[in-house]
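User: Predict the complex with iron/sulfur cluster.
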Amino acid sequence: MAGESNHHNGDKTLSVRIYEQVNESVFRCYQCGKCSAGCPLSEDMDYPPSQLMRMLQLETPEVEANILRSYTIWLCLTCETCIARCPQEVDIPKIMDFLRSESLRRKKVHPSAKDIISFHKSFLDSIKYTGRLHEVGLIAGYKFRTYHLLKDLPVAPKLFLRGKLKLFPHFIKGKSVISRIFTKTFREYKGKEAEK
Amino acid sequence: MMRLGYFPGCSLLGTAREYDESLRAISHKTGIELFEIPDWNCCGASAAHCINHDLSLALPARILALAEKEKLEEILVPCAACFNRLDVVRHELISDEKLRQRISGIIEMDFQGNIKVINIIEALSRIPSDGLKEQILKPFQYTVACYYGCLLVRPPKIVNFDRAEDPQIMDDVMKKIGADTIDWAYKVECCGAGFSVSRTDIVAKLSGKIIKDAVQRGAEAIIVACPMCHSNLDMRRSEIERLEGRKYSIPVLYITQAIGLALGISNKKLGLHRHIVPVKLPLKVKTVVEKEFVPTAKAEEE
Ligand code: SF4
Ligand code: SF4
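Assistant: Here is the predicted structure with iron/sulfur cluster placed in the model:
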């Protein structure tokens, strides 16, 4: 099983933490390559999914740094093709989720992933105070974060004419519960970081 | 009457409002009674699970708990992405008692786990075909590509609803209303999902392959059951055409819209005017399918 001593600073290896936190063993992977063959984004990734699994098995600090800094983890769309086809039922999408939060938490994010992360953050901002996603607010927030001001401009009036853009957000009654859910889950999230 | 809890999800109030409109329009005739979950919230979609695992469990858990409070047994979730989140979370929480309690604490409600989450195809497949037959005024006699996408059928262990590689249930429903369905390679391939805004180039590439295969195999319409699939194949059509260097006129319909047309409901009520790609279906008495290949100037960029 995964060694804990490879890391000079006494940190547990990623594979151990994946096992503890999401209950998945990367050592089940026997490198058949089916996941990479079916993954719609293999060719755009820096490491296709099977290679990422192999890297997790190696457990050296250098390789782990490359995993957390990879573009792969942000490109993965959670389409679930890999797990549907994996003979060992390795839940790669779940592992990807773990690696994404870890990479964010340790501030090791691949520079090209900036836009993707800005989109996720703008999405969460939009629901944090209202309870529901407000698409116009999401796009505005995203553009504000990324300065992609002109992209998508041509499609907006078309959507508006078709009655698809709601200009004002809807506030649910339980919006304060939603804000508390955010506060609590992000407190846990930071707490886990402090533990490490 | 089939009484179902109803969770529309955020996009059905905005860019996918025709999905909600068409579902409501057909519900009466198809014997579905929808009871909207009061004060529902966003499920957090991929943003939550990419960034914070607990949040990605808590948001759907509140929705499920609200439905349980209404004593509902089943909740219909038309958006395939929301369906997937809700069902995966339900599964995760009922298989881990400690987690269930912790998340119940976070959402300030007790989630018990006795509710069932169903997607639109499952609900529609329950409509008895003889009941439907009497209602059909204009059989939907077109050749269609049923596009399931990722999240209706995966992960198979959890959603456990149809074959993960070559699902059939949507095809069966479409056949009941008169359609011919094609056998094709992209039924469950990914359209690019949530990258519509942040990586439109990837969406154009993946969705382009889907449209191309459907058209080459003679489909006259693509049938979907997911707002993300719809917006990537419809709203992103001009990006797809630029990348592929040709025009595609094939319309993309929600399955509820196709059923609505067969039931004789007006285009307007079904929200067909809200699509970016005009819904022009060829006039029928069945003719030989003409394939559409209208080459345009090859795209210069890249
Ligand atoms: S499909 Fe499964 S066993 Fe095969 S390489 Fe991928 S993760 Fe490993
Ligand atoms: S879930 Fe991610 S890694 Fe797996 S096939 Fe889809 S995009 Fe690739």
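The first strand of chain B starts at residue 2 and ends at 6.
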